[in-house]
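Service request form, structural biology core

Requester: graduate student, group of Dr. S.
Request type: structure prediction, single chain
Budget code: on file
Notes: please return the result as structure tokens.

Sequence provided:
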Amino acid sequence: MPNVNNAFQYLKKIKYGLRGGWHSAFEINKRAKIDVFDYQSLVTPLNFYPFVPHKENNLYGNGYVINKEFSNIDLSVTAIEHGLYIGSLVPERHLVNAYHNIITFSEYRKKYIEAKTDKNIITIGPYIKYAKPLYSDEKIALEKELLGKTLVVFPSHSIESIYAKYDINQFIEYIKKFKNEFNFDKVLVCLYWKDIALGMDQQYVSAGFNVVSAGHMYDPYFLSRLKTILLLADATLTNTVGTHVGYAITLNKPTKVWNEGEVGYHPITGNEAEAAKELGTRTGLDLDTHLSAVNHIKDIFSNFDNKISNEQVSCVQHYWGS
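Core staff response, request fulfilled:
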């Protein structure tokens, strides 16, 4: 069977390569050497190319990193949850017969998945632990010296079919207030590639902030680039609960979730059908468990005093694992 799987994966590489993926593979290696501040170069479109089996496993470099760290796990029969899943929802695509294993963060998440399948659930904690930064220790130290005390901001991000809508001006004003209150020298705003494509970077640049990005979702160095950006931070600020919150704490970066601004999610023109499907995914218990956990995390990260509390560490260990 492994030989059959390997042959199938080889054919997929040829298929996607002929569709432009080979150029992407070349481009990806080039981007690994690009500075995180050159965000426009990092987020230009990429054709999909499978570095590991199954398209979703390639998103954000998760499979690329996990495959290097856990060579004993056969990714041809494994689904990888691509980020923090909060609540009881388990995507139907992960429950199909093609998968024997599902990789996730925590025991909290494992219990929800086990309630819906008899597949083997593998918990490995926050994936960012296994990513190698793209900068050397020496370059990170030099960059930190040049930047001074640095705040990295993670605004709520859009996806392919849905854009995240919030009052950017209101958020910018709070970032400035937060920067001054806690004496940060520099603000880096880490934007998702889709939001840069939608032009949301311009207001942050106009406000005097530096924009950075972890790159395109098909870039296998996404997770390594995100780790690099977090290592430049002294603290992080966000207006949403997401994977980045636990990743920041994992890397010992104090974090605040700002809850005063409302974030809404709306269909991108031309993608209404897919957006409706995404926005209607959680109902009933799936929605209730999601909202309850999100509010719990928000409460724990609503205060900031330049350090990480024991309660915040426990929270991350619960939802993200360790």
